[in-house]
Amino acid sequence: MEVVFKNVFKRYGDFTAVDNLDLKVESGALHFLLGPSGCGKTTTLRMLAGLETVTEGQLFFDGKDVTKQPAADRGIGMVFQNYALWPHMTVYKNIEYGLKLRKLTADEVKQRIEDVLEITQLKNFVHRLPGQLSGGQQQRVALARALAIRPNVLLLDEPLSNLDAKLRSEMRDNILRIHKQTGITTVYVTHDQKEALSMGTSISVMHAGHLIQTASPRNLYNHPKTPFIAGFIGETNLIPGRVKSVQGNQSEIETGLGILKSNRMSEPMSVGAEVSVSIRPEAIAIDWGKSGQGENPLGLAVEHLTYLGESEQFLLRGDGDIGLKVNFYHAPEHSFHEGDQVTCFMPADDVLVLPPQVEMGPGT
Ligand code: ATP
Q1: What's the pTM?
Q2: Which fold has domain 3-227?
Q3: Is the ipTM beyond the 0.90 threshold?
Q4: Integer Cα distance of 297 and 318 in angstroms
């Protein structure tokens, strides 16, 4: 089922929680709503489910206007962070509960429960009470219950945040497998960018009630439209600057680190425009051999070293007091010490020129 939000607003009194949302979730997508706490993700999900009214705008399921349709008629399955299982009912009864309200024969109910027990691998737990299950198993029951109604759209609201790291990773695999098997259009809310990047077929990043960008995980990481997204999706260094010259996609930017050459602009910009330069910590090269060859050479001091196992992170500082994070894989042992002077290069293909950083108010 394709889901479309058209110019949707949600206001609580004077406060706008969701501001002019235009979003198309393709049929069969595993679509993520990603953003910091308070940015409007849950409100968007609740409007989709019909649990919250739409103040202005329209919502469509497969082209049909469902803006005013009651929640019960939308065929939505929901899974919440806190599982929301009935504690006094067995796994079987918990799954059966949602089906009893539907017009199904006893055989149909039985068949559906068997199907979802199979898909969520819960067959051996049917007689247990939720209190006798691990967090991951409880979350699978919540998923089984949502799937049993054969929803048009499955909504997942921070489903993994109560689980420890190992269970979280297992549940990620489970959700991906189930999504593949069922093909149900799924909208998944999280503030965890790693979850969204590793699982999503598409991601919408929200900030302070606004949808900032929708793209595939790879596109979002490689082509962020704003400094907020560059910093929220993965790590980056953001350096304020001003355009000194432009020729096609190539530009020179005046910054506190000197003039930086760039081969990438997120949008056309003119000379004199204020910008924000983004460069990923893994894209900066340290000149181990002191060859002096490379684009955008910079002389910097090593302020701090953090050993991360597979890599080391250096915090470097230049004359203009601008700090730069640089990630190193396979750094030679004892290569540098705090206080050392180093030369770095920033390949112009990795120097991304973005619009300037703007304050977006609450939700940041
Ligand atoms: P989190 O990750 O913390 O759950 P979120 O992105 O899901 O955050 P929402 O729960 O959608 O954020 O809330 C968006 C904004 O709307 C918040 O500032 C919140 O305080 C506000 N809000 C939500 N529900 C109401 C309400 N019933 N009345 C007034 N304001 C509300």
Answers
A1: 0.88
A2: Rossmann fold (3.40.50)
A3: yes
A4: 12
CA 44 to ligand 1 center in whole angstroms: 10
Protein residue with its CA nearest to atom 12 in ligand 1: 38
Residue nearest to ligand 1 atom 21, measured at CA: 17
User: Is there a contact between 346 and 237 (Cβ–Cβ < 8 Å)?
Assistant: no
The answer, yes or no, to whether any atom of ligand 1 lies below 6 A from the CB of 36, is: no
Q: Round to whole Å and give the CA distance between 277 and 352.
A: 6
Q: Could you tell me the residue ranges of all domains in the chain?
A: 3-227, 236-354
Residue 21, strand partner residues: 8
Report the atom number in ligand 1 closest to the C-alpha of 189.
7
307 within 8 A of 245, measured Cβ to Cβ: no
Cα 312 from chain centroid?
A: 25
Gap from CA of 41 to ligand 1 centroid (Å): 8
Atom 27 of ligand 1, residue of closest alpha carbon: 12
CA atoms of 4 and 25, how far apart (whole Å):
6
- Is any atom of ligand 1 closer than 6 Å to the C-beta of 40? yes
46 lines ligand 1 (CB under 6 A): no
Ligand 1 atom nearest to 206, measured from its CA: 6
Asked if the domains 3-227 and 236-354 are classified in one and the same CATH topology, the answer is no
Q: Tell me the CA–centroid distance for residue 39 and ligand 1, in Å.
A: 7
pLDDT 10s digits, 205-238: 999 999 999 999 999 999 999 999 999 998 999 9
Superfamily of domain 236-354: Nucleic acid-binding proteins (2.40.50.140)
Burial class (CB in 10 A: 0-12, 13-18, 19+), 112: buried
What are the tokens at 107? Answer: 């055989």
- Half-sphere exposure (CA, 13 Å, Cβ side) for 187? 29
Q: Evaluate: CB of 45 within 6 angstroms of ligand 1.
A: no
- The pLDDT tens digits of the residues spanning 67-118 come to 999 998 999 999 988 778 999 999 999 999 888 878 888 899 999 999 999 8
